[in-house]
Amino acid sequence: MGKGFQGWISTPAPEVIYDRQLVWLAFALMLSGLVMVTSASFPISTRLTGGPFHFMIRHAVFLFLALCSAVVVIQIPLERWMKYSTHLLLLSLALLLIVLLTGHSVNGASRWIPLGLFNLQPAEVAKLSLFVFMSSYLVRKSDEVRGSFFGGFIKPIIVFACLAVLLLAQPDLGTVVVMLVTLFGMLFIAGAKLTQFISLLFVGVAAVTLLILAEPYRMRRMTSFWNPFEDPFGSGYQLTQSLMAFGRGDWFGQGLGNSIQKLEYLPEAHTDFVFAVVAEELGFAGVVLILLLIFTLVYKALLIGRKALESGELFGGFLAISISIWFAFQTLVNVGAAAGIVPTKGLTLPLISYGGSSLIIMTVAVALLLRIDYECRLSALKKTRLQPQPASNDTKKKLENNETE
C-alpha cells in the first residue's frame, strides 16, 4: 500500500481533454452561492417555515439537480444541439405560453410554472434556447447575415421579437434586455454590417425606453435609481437598504453570518440582492473575489469560443461567445442594481443566487462550454495523430543503408 500511494503521488496527472480550470471555477461559484444563500436566508426561512435551513436545503437540492443535468448535457454532441435547435426554441415558446395561461404569480408577475419540487421559470429556458438557435442560424445563414439585410439580419430579430412579446406579457423586461444585448454581440461577431448593427442598436434603445415610459412601476424604478434616498421608505427602500449593506461592509466585512440588512430589512436578500449580503459580510475583499471568479469564467468562455471559431467549429464558437456575453452582462446588471449603478431588473447572479431554474440552466450552459472545449481538443488530437511522424535516427540509418545496397 505504501508503494502504491508513493507511486500515485509521484506519477504526474495524465493529460485530459477538458478544461479543468473551468470546472473548478464553476464549483467555486456554486459553493460560494450555497454558503451565501444559507447565510442570507436564515431570517426569512425562520419566519416562513420555523427552521433556519429551509432555503439552504432547497438550494442544495437545486445544485444536485443542476449537476445531474450537466452530466447528461455534457454527453450530447454539439451536432445534436445544432440539429434540434429549432425544436428547443419551439419548446421555449410553448412554455412561455403555458406560463401566461396557468403560471404561478409572485409580486404581480406571472413567471413560474409549478412543478412540485420547484417552480420552473421559462424565461431562463428561453435565454438558452435563443442562443442555441441563433448559433445554429449564424452557421447556416452566414452569407446572408454578412450580405442581405432582410434575409440574414431581420429574420433573427423577428424570432427574438416573438420571445420578447411573451416575456413582456409576464412582465420580464430584464430578461428581454439580456437577450437583446447578447443577440447584438452574436450578430456583431458573425460579421453583420456596421450600419445594420448601429441601426438595430438605436431601434433597441428606443424600444426599451418606450417600454420604461409605458409602465408606471418601471418609471418609479428609474426615479428611485437616480435618487433612492428621496423616498427611502417607498420606491427607494430596497436600494437604500442595499447601499447600507455595502457601506457596512468596509474592506473585510462584518464576518460571515453577521449581516444586519438580511434581518428582513433588505427584501429578496437571498435571491436578487445576495450580492449586497456578500458585500456586508465579506467586504470589499469578498466582492472582488466573487467578481474575479465570475469574470475569469467569462474570459475562459471567450477563449473557448475563439478556439472553436479558429478550428472551424462555428456552432460551438458562436454558442460559447453568447454564453460569455450572457454571463457577463447579467452579472453587471445584478451587481449594478445592488450597488445603485443601474435600475433594479430582478436578474440573478450567475451560479450564486437562489433559484432552481436559473441555477440549472446556467449549469447546463457551463456544461455546454465544457462540451465545446472537449470537441475542439478531440478534433486537434485526431489531427495530430493523423499527421505523419518524423522518422527516428535508427530508421533513417536503415533507409540509407538500403539505398546504398
Automatic annotation (TrEMBL):
Q: Where in the cell is it found?
A: Cell inner membrane; Cell membrane
Major location category of this protein: membrane
Q: Which residues cross the membrane?
A: 21-44, 56-76, 88-106, 112-133, 145-167, 173-190, 197-214, 282-302, 314-339, 351-372
Is Ribosomal protein a UniProt keyword of this protein? Answer: no
MF (Gene Ontology): lipid-linked peptidoglycan transporter activity; peptidoglycan glycosyltransferase activity
Q: Which Pfam families does this UniProt record tie to the protein?
A: FTSW_RODA_SPOVE
User: What lineage, starting at the top, does this entry show?
Assistant: Bacteria, Pseudomonadati, Pseudomonadota, Gammaproteobacteria, Vibrionales
Q: Which protein family is it in?
A: Belongs to the SEDS family. FtsW subfamily.
Q: Which residues form a coiled coil?
A: none
Catalysed reaction, written as an equation: [GlcNAc-(1->4)-Mur2Ac(oyl-L-Ala-gamma-D-Glu-L-Lys-D-Ala-D-Ala)](n)-di-trans,octa-cis-undecaprenyl diphosphate + beta-D-GlcNAc-(1->4)-Mur2Ac(oyl-L-Ala-gamma-D-Glu-L-Lys-D-Ala-D-Ala)-di-trans,octa-cis-undecaprenyl diphosphate = [GlcNAc-(1->4)-Mur2Ac(oyl-L-Ala-gamma-D-Glu-L-Lys-D-Ala-D-Ala)](n+1)-di-trans,octa-cis-undecaprenyl diphosphate + di-trans,octa-cis-undecaprenyl diphosphate + H(+)
Pathway entry:
Cell wall biogenesis; peptidoglycan biosynthesis
Keywords on record: Cell cycle, Cell division, Cell inner membrane, Cell membrane, Cell shape, Cell wall biogenesis/degradation, Glycosyltransferase, Membrane, Peptidoglycan synthesis, Transferase, Transmembrane, Transmembrane helix
* Name by which UniProt lists this protein: Probable peptidoglycan glycosyltransferase FtsW
> What are its E.C. numbers?
2.4.99.28
GO BP terms? cell wall organization; FtsZ-dependent cytokinesis; peptidoglycan biosynthetic process; regulation of cell shape
Q: Which PROSITE patterns does this one have?
A: FTSW_RODA_SPOVE (PS00428)
Q: What does this protein do?
A: Peptidoglycan polymerase that is essential for cell division.
Q: Name one GO cellular component term.
A: cell division site
Which species expresses this protein natively?
Vibrio casei
